[in-house]
Predict the 3D structure of the following.
Amino acid sequence: MPPRARRNRHGSQGELNEAARLADRLQQAGYTKRDIARVINRDASLVSQFYTKNKGAAFVPALREVLTAIEAGGITDLPELAAIAARHTHRRTTASGSRARVRGKTLLITPTGSGSGRVGAQAIASGSARLRPLIAEAARRGLRLAFTVRLAKTAYLHPSGSRTDSPGIRRDVIQRADHTEERSYGSAQTGGFDAADFARRVDADGGDVTAAVHQWLVETGRIHADAYILHLEIRTWRPR
């Protein structure tokens, strides 16, 4: 069968680039574009641009290794494939040779259970949807979970370092010049939280991660009910 033609942004037809051909083979193996995006730690729209805007050259080595892992190694688990891809994905460089910036950090849990994701003000206002897959995957794999929040200092009910709120004096607390404060809840040392419990909380809030975390902080007497979360980070690990 001849290679499938595509239309570029100018409307002319041409052969698929290597990234698109590899993506086609992954789809033939049963993976969706969204799955491929998770494997290469990028947004699904980028995978579509393999076909429409001739992008994806930087991911060709990673996609080849992933295909080999599937076809020769029988590996099918997305987090494991993502870990393989990560070892063969290199950031773009600018004209000066420095590493190019990316739009944001995409979520990933490694085969060992270590994962993290953070969101800022814009994502928080819309429910921190980018963090939901991380929590759901952590719950599926029986992982533990911790999180860090940043709020105005006046939003907390207890002073920083209070054992009612934090594990010790100023431990896991960062005070910032803009009168906000970051506090971390849960750690590998203290055991953290059951990811499945937080996944249920998120589902009960219609997938709104911000609301689920906010409700937990209110229920446990840590913040005022009208407090506003400015920053949220989730971390996961495998229990010992």
